[in-house]
């Protein structure tokens, strides 16, 4: 961490005495299990058993002004990514060097080129986005990334605020509840799916969730499904893996997507974002089948490509935003959240970026074209990683200036963790959820719908909850 790192004021005075701490931790664990803030264990998998998801005992402090900035900016970011996703020339040229050296990106682009040449069957797209931020040492938020596929934890994050409200009340800190912002991420994300379903005007069609063979983050997924079934009981939801779709999926005479005879008019990908979800050609064929169909995809193949790190890096280049955003005030608002992003392509700029990273690796993070967490290379590990790559191979990565956020203090509660838990220093990453529906030239629906907070130990580089290194949290807003 940066030597100038500052500490944020805690929500409540710490430390708690051991008796009070043990009492409230026991209650909090049970509250989490009983309300679905839970996951299946990767270490001891049992489809019939859940354990609580790692969480921070009390909400972590986050600058109120920056939280509101992120909320207000989301509809604009939705529009930006929507425009990027519908600019095939920009996507293909930006990803051309990556396509040559990264098998996964190449496979996605192969599907994109196929549907472009055939003519895209469904021009309406649905995106459920999440823009992730860290505050830097001056508290100003900087964007870590924007997720365009399988943007998770909208479900569980929605119940973190009531969970923290319960915990603070048990600790006699009810006066703090006013600083916990309302979070309706689950309903906002699901309502957008149903809006897309309504646009199709096919009342017997279902919403299809694409899922992994084994789902550890089952509660977060099922919250979406169960919300739709409760709020819109006339809308069916079905779950299938890419492998199952390769076996039972087909296109109807009008290019409708049929799964075991049931039409799916909206497809929501909770899998398909990493190479491990594609065992062979069958799964890629299933992805192409979906893309060729009349179903509204979340995301479409072009939206998936628009979320790659290479595209994020290209958008940070001087003047590139003007291609997609006409208003200078909006351009400045977006540019303000960008941190330094550098191409590692085989050119003078790429060589200069490598020299920067080798000269001062602690200032940087190496990022590949991957979602799912656990893939980045940090600090002192960067030189060896770069030296092990050919000039071709490094085109599959980007270099990002590292953000040094302020720290907070709290208790991280993990299954089978120490008892009592120690008081630790933490770093929190804010995610803002957005939804947008539209075609190339028309936006039909555009909303900011909620947030999540993931918190990790200040000594940890990665912070993914599903990946096993972070914990669920909610923001306590401070001035």
UniProtKB/TrEMBL annotation:
It is an enzyme of class 6 (ligase). Residues 206-306 form the Glutathione synthase substrate-binding domain. Its cofactor is Mg(2+). SUPFAM superfamilies: Glutathione synthetase ATP-binding domain-like, PreATP-grasp domain. Gene3D superfamilies: 3.30.1490.50, 3.30.1490.80, ATP-grasp fold, B domain, Glutathione synthase, substrate-binding domain superfamily, eukaryotic, Glutathione Synthetase, Chain A, domain 3. GO terms for molecular function: ATP binding; glutathione binding; glutathione synthase activity; magnesium ion binding. Pfam families: GSH_synth_ATP, GSH_synthase. GO terms for cellular component: cytosol. Mg(2+) binds at residues 145, 147, 371. ATP binds at residues 145, 309, 367-376, 378, 400-403, 429, 456, 462. Binds 1 Mg(2+) ion per subunit. InterPro entries: Glutathione_synthase, Glutathione_synthase_a-hlx, Glutathione_synthase_C_euk, Glutathione_synthase_N_euk, GSH-S_sub-bd_sf, GSH_synth_subst-bd, PreATP-grasp_dom_sf. Its EC number is 6.3.2.3. It comes from the Eukaryota. The keyword Magnesium applies. The keyword Nucleotide-binding applies. Pathway: Sulfur metabolism; glutathione biosynthesis; glutathione from L-cysteine and L-glutamate: step 2/2. Keywords: ATP-binding, Glutathione biosynthesis, Ligase, Magnesium, Metal-binding, Nucleotide-binding. It catalyses: gamma-L-glutamyl-L-cysteine + glycine + ATP = glutathione + ADP + phosphate + H(+). Substrate binds at residues 130, 221, 454. Belongs to the eukaryotic GSH synthase family. Homodimer. This is Glutathione synthetase. It comes from Anopheles culicifacies.
């Amino acid at each position: 961490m940066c030597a100038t790192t500052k500490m944020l004021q805690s929500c409540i005075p710490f430390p708690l005495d051991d008796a009070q701490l043990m009492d409230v931790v026991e209650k909090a664990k049970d509250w989490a299990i009983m309300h679905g803030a839970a996951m299946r264990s990767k270490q001891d998998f049992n489809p019939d058993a859940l354990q609580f998801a790692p969480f921070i005992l009390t909400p972590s402090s986050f600058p109120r002004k920056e939280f509101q900035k992120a909320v207000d900016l989301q509809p604009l970011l939705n529009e930006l990514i929507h425009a990027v996703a519908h600019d095939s020339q920009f996507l293909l040229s930006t990803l051309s060097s990556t396509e040559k050296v990264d098998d996964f990106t190449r496979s996605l682009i192969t599907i994109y080129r196929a549907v472009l040449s055939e003519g895209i069957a469904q021009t309406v797209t649905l995106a459920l986005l999440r823009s992730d931020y860290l505050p830097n040492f001056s508290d100003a938020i900087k964007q870590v990334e924007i997720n365009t596929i399988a943007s998770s934890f909208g479900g569980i994050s929605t119940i973190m605020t009531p969970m923290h409200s319960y915990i603070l009340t048990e600790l006699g800190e009810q006066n703090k509840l006013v600083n916990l912002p309302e979070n309706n991420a689950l309903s906002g994300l699901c309502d957008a799916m149903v809006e897309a379903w309504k646009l199709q005007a096919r009342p017997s069609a279902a919403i299809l969730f694409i899922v992994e063979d084994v789902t550890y983050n089952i509660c977060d997924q099922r919250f979406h499904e169960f919300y739709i079934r409760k709020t819109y009981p006339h809308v069916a939801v079905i779950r299938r893996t890419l492998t199952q779709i390769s076996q039972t999926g087909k296109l109807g005479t009008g290019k409708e997507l049929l799964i075991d005879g049931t039409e799916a008019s909206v497809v929501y990908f909770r899998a398909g974002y990493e190479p491990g979800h594609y065992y062979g050609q069958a799964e890629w064929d299933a992805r192409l089948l979906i893309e060729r169909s009349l179903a509204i995809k979340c995301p479409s193949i072009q939206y998936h490509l628009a979320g790659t790190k290479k595209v994020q890096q290209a958008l940070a280049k001087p003047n590139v935003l003007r291609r997609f955003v006409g208003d200078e005030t909006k351009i400045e608002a977006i540019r303000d959240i960008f941190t330094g992003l550098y191409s590692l392509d085989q050119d003078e700029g790429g060589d200069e970026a490598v020299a920067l990273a080798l000269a001062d690796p602690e200032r940087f993070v190496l990022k590949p074209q991957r979602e799912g967490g656990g893939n980045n290379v940090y600090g002192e590990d960067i030189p060896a990683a770069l030296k092990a790559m050919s000039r071709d191979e490094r085109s599959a990565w980007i270099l990002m200036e590292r953000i040094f956020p302020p720290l907070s203090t709290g208790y991280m509660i993990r299954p089978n963790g120490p008892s009592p838990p120690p008081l630790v220093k933490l770093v929190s990453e804010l995610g803002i959820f957005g939804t947008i529906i539209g075609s190339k030239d028309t936006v039909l629906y555009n909303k900011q719908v909620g947030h999540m907070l993931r918190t990790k130990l200040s000594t940890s580089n990665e912070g993914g909850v599903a990946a096993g290194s972070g914990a669920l949290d909610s923001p306590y807003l401070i001035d």
